[in-house]
Amino acid sequence: MLWYKAWLETRWRMALIAAVLAFVLFQVATHSQKSMDGVAMLTSLQFMWMIIPLSMAGSGVRTENPFRAAKGIQGSIYYTMSLPVSRLQLLAVRAGVGLAETGLLIAVGIGMAAAAFPAVRMIPVNEAASYVMTIFVCGLSGFGISTLYATFLDQQWQAMASMLTFFLARGTIFGLDGARWSRFDFFRVMGEASPLVTHGMPWVAMGVSLIVAAICFAGAVKVEEARQY
Amino acid sequence: MSDFAIEANGLRKSFKGRAALDGLDLRVPAGSIYGFLGRNGAGKTTTIKVLMGMLRADGGAARVFGLDVNDPQKCQEARKRIGFVTEGKDLYPYMTVEQIIRFTRPFFPRWRDDLERRYLKMFDLPPCKKVSALSKGMQSKLMLLLGICHGAELLILDEPTDGLDPAAVEDVLRELVAIAGAQGTTIFFSSHQLTEVEQIADSICIIDKGRAVVAGVLDDLKAQYQRFRVVTENGLPSGMRWVSGVEQVRQEGRALSILASGNLEAVTAQLELLPGASVERFPVGLKEIFLEHVRSDENALV
Which residues of chain A are within 8 Å of residue B82 when distances are taken between CB atoms? Predict the structure, then answer.
């Protein structure tokens, strides 16, 4: 039933992100050149693909009543905490639902792009699948950062702080010596170095993303277990 | 198996250097209705949060059904047997009454469908209405329903009648007594309403500044405490040393008002020795016992 509760709590956020995604696709469709090919179209959405996981993460219970928590009113958190479930379970369920919604939004985004741009439909299915997998796995780093922030920041700051952290850290680390570190850059492989362009899986970048996500999740678990309500 | 549903020894908890619990000792007998009293900020809610595993104690030990609540796994085990009503009575505003019951039920294998039907009817709770659309009183009733229908062995209720109208308060109190009587459920409830506590509690603990200042069976405490009214010829002799048991002495002219918490015969004998004294004894209620222990009286001589 925790899954059901997490879904009820996050469905409007998911709908909002889906609406933003549709708006961005509409803008690209309206303003891009007619000759834009499918690969260029999908990779131009690089920022959007990363904003989805950054926005869909949430912690176990802290974000249950985000606006009231900001005022020091914990609200229904106490009811949740009185249930015979561990904090780890609460965190895992919220992360699981967030990840499922992230996957669904990426799939919906690719589907909408394919519907709006005939050129996207020309991309071979196996390459499209590789691209979706790359987006999802590399998005896990952002999801992890956002999950970690959600354990101690209110929801209205969480998405903003995680986006700032992600893009600043990525720009700093990979911007210093782009050529040297480029194969580790898990954001670059959503765009100019994606499997749609290179025709190969970016395993190294995906691995780096998984490591970043694992560190952030471990941090989130530690914070959640230590938290007092 | 312990005779106590809740046991706490020397429980300590501080927030930013300020002690909320300062060596609290607590023994809640299994099957009792236990009133937990104290002023605002005395440490009642902090105690409850420690018992529920929401806060971790800085020192001391607390056990529920013999399970150490500072151990997250054991506390989770204990929570399976606890029905909880929070102080704010906040539930998920986006769920309907029916949804929140459906959500809660699977966590508790001993869920009582018969009680659920009974309380839905008794509290007049509309199953299809959202929690956010319920009045504060109705939310309190819904939370009580969720707590009671667990089939819990222990009900921890933080200000359970807060926000209820007088008729609903009576309904709730009557049901709590019925549950304790029929199912042997231990009821541990904090309250500011001394009349409610006096009405249903068989044992109480008064907490002040994070410490238990009085604890015991309510009838015993009431028998133990007496107020003496004394009129003397010349008031009190200077430097008078009181026998043990005298808790508070107030003087207005030649009239003395004395509250004693025991050793009553010795107190009576001492008072009767005062020149020209006429001594009367009166039973005291919970309110007087409470006020004596939590309120500093500037006019008191002792």
Answer: 82
